[in-house]
Amino acid sequence: MACIKRFLSSLTVNATTQVPTNTTGTNSSTGPLTTTKLPVTTAPPATTEAPLPCANKPCSGSAKCINLYQGYTCQCSYGYYYTTSGCQEGKVFPGQFTVNITYSDRMANESSSEYEKLYKIITDFFNTTFQNETDYEETIIVNIKQSSAKSKIQNKAGTSGTSVTVRNMFKVTTKLNSSEVTKLIEDTMKGNSGFSSDSYEALSQCAIYDCDEATTTCQDTDEITCECKSGFSKKNPEDKSCSGCDNTCSEEKHMHCVIDRNNVPVCQCLPNFQNKDGNCMECDVGYSGVNCSNNFLLILIIVAALCGALILGLIVGLIFTSLRANKRQRNPEKRHLLTEDYSNKRETPGHVSAINSAANDKIFPTIQTSNAAQVNRGFEISSPYEMEPPTRILPERDYDDDAYEILSKGDGFRLQRRY
């Protein structure tokens, strides 16, 4: 019975085998997984998806693992090539050429079949080119783009080729130079229809090192480096861009380092300071903010000055109006005294006074006498000018007796014109 159970269980198991494949040079790849399913009648087969090759971390040292369409490849940083012992320092010979295959955007995807096809063409070509050079190690694809030039084959087909930038890695002790490497490549291309024979161009290391053009300058001397431009700094010497400002940008000089919209560090003046002839100076009165671009305080000062001038003008106008009103209006006590003085004045013949209307009816002032005094004296006064009182001097008569007559009334004497 145990043998029968083992036989039945074996019918439900899938047989999975992995076929390893190796490429030439230092690159290695693993072939696709093949699955054979035995016919079963009792239960559906159990299937599992195999992990990507790089999930098992097959690359040693600091090499980067890249998943291909089938298998993987290990790639070191610039200036190094990969061996089973890890990344080794080497000598770089960059170059660019055209492959006579139709360009596709999928070539940018390293795990696509289009990239793997191009990868195999290039690695096979350079393995053949440098087969007699013991110092050759590997060729690394740097960039893939559509070619702007067309070969004779491409003109007939009406399609454009694919431009590829590579770096060929040799041992650091190699005696080959750039001209010798270029000649070997061009000689091999002449007999290969898959390449444009005259398309290869040797490049400088700075052309592919990818230094940041905004903040660095590429230096290709004994060792290729990205030197920071004036005003910039970086933390690590291996960095290809400078992410900070140099020590001249300090708070003592009223400066600070900021990152602009292009991710480029820029040394600017602190808020409330502006750049004048390379120095950060305080903002003028009324200005503030970054680079003294805010003039809100200046507007406030102008508005306050205008309001103050308006208020001052209103006050001066009010004082001036009050003074004019007081000048036109006479003092009541002074006016009363002047009225009494004018009323006591005598009017001359032919002149009518406009001040005291009551005086217009009388040319001479009324002389009042007491009846008791008249009785005591025992005579009747007929005219004030005919008597000579001892204590009062009357003005001389300035009228004609024929024209006026004196009337005696209870309140005194009045002159009346004769008709």
List the helices and strands and how they pair.
Layout: H1 2-10, E1 15-22, E2 28-36, E3 64-67, E4 72-75, E5 80-83, E6 86-99, H2 113-129, E7 136-146, H3 152-157, E8 162-171, H4 178-190, E9 201-202, H5 205-209, E10 216-220, E11 224-228, E12 232-233, E13 244-245, E14 255-259, E15 265-269, E16 273-276, E17 279-282, H6 296-328, H7 332-344, H8 371-377, E18 404-409, E19 412-417
Please name the defining characteristics of this protein.
two-stranded antiparallel ribbon, single chain, 419 residues, Alpha-Beta Plaits, alpha+beta, 4 domains
Describe the overall structure.
- The chain is built from 8 helices and 19 strands.
- With 419 residues, the protein is an alpha+beta fold.
- The strands form 8 sheets. Strands 5, 6, 7, 8 and 9 form a 5-stranded antiparallel sheet that branches.
- β14 and β15 form a beta hairpin.
- The longest helix is centred in the C-terminal third of the chain and has 33 residues.
- The termini are far apart.
In short:
With 419 residues, this protein is of the alpha+beta class. The chain is 25% helix and 26% strand. The protein folds into 4 domains: 19-32 and 50-208, SEA domain (Alpha-Beta Plaits, 2-Layer Sandwich), CATH 3.30.70; 217-270, no CATH class; 271-309, no CATH class; 356-417, no CATH class.
CATH domain class of the largest domain: Alpha Beta
Order of helices and strands: HEEEEEEHEHEHEHEEEEEEEEHHHEE
The number of helices is: 8
Q: Determine the N-to-C terminus distance.
A: 183 Å
